[in-house]
């Protein structure tokens, strides 16, 4: 298994902000647990839930810390003549004629959409088919029960 996680600078910063927010949530959740422990028996009905919340947050923090510790920031690695991690790609679904802009990122950064730009995982069907594609190239992917053909319209970084 590869020890590094390649991230865009924006993705790294977004994950760092998420880590800071989770640490604040953890402090708040620990305070709630402490308050529940100090409360009398009738008022401490939420103790189990508060303790579960602490564990969930701690797991999320551990995961984020691991990703960030292994992170390698993707730098401009050359010309924009082909797709690589970090690329913003405009695709046209050939059958429907629908266009979409996506950014190819590592699985750690993949999200539905931030600032209107979906970030797709390099391990998703479309994401796995994108690397090394050039403008004008078409490719076909299996998306569940349907097969979709896309054309690369533009690439930018």
Keywords:
single chain; 157 residues; alpha/beta; Helix Hairpins; Chitinase A, domain 3; 2 domains; 3 helices; 8 strands; 29% strand; elongated
- Overall morphology: elongated
Residue runs with pLDDT of under 50 for 5 or more positions: none
H and E order: EHHEEEEEHEE
The H-level CATH homologous superfamily of the largest domain, spelled out, is Transcription elongation factor, GreA/GreB, N-terminal domain
Please provide a written account of the structure.
The protein has helices at 9-38, 47-69, 125-129, and strands spanning 5-7, 71-73, 88-93, 98-105, 111-114, 117-121, 138-143, 146-156. The chain has two domains: 5-73, Transcription elongation factor, GreA/GreB, N-terminal domain (Helix Hairpins); 88-156, Transcription elongation factor, GreA/GreB, C-terminal domain (Chitinase A, domain 3). Strands 5-6-4-3-8-7 form a six-stranded mixed β-sheet. It has a two-stranded parallel sheet with strand order 1-2. The protein has three helices and eight strands; from the N terminus they run βααβββββαββ. The model has no long low-confidence stretch (mean pLDDT 88). The protein has 157 residues and is α/β, with parallel strands linked by helices. Strand 3 and strand 4 (98-105) form a beta hairpin. The longest helix is centred in the first third of the chain and has 30 residues, at 9-38. Helix 1 (9-38) packs antiparallel against helix 2 (47-69).
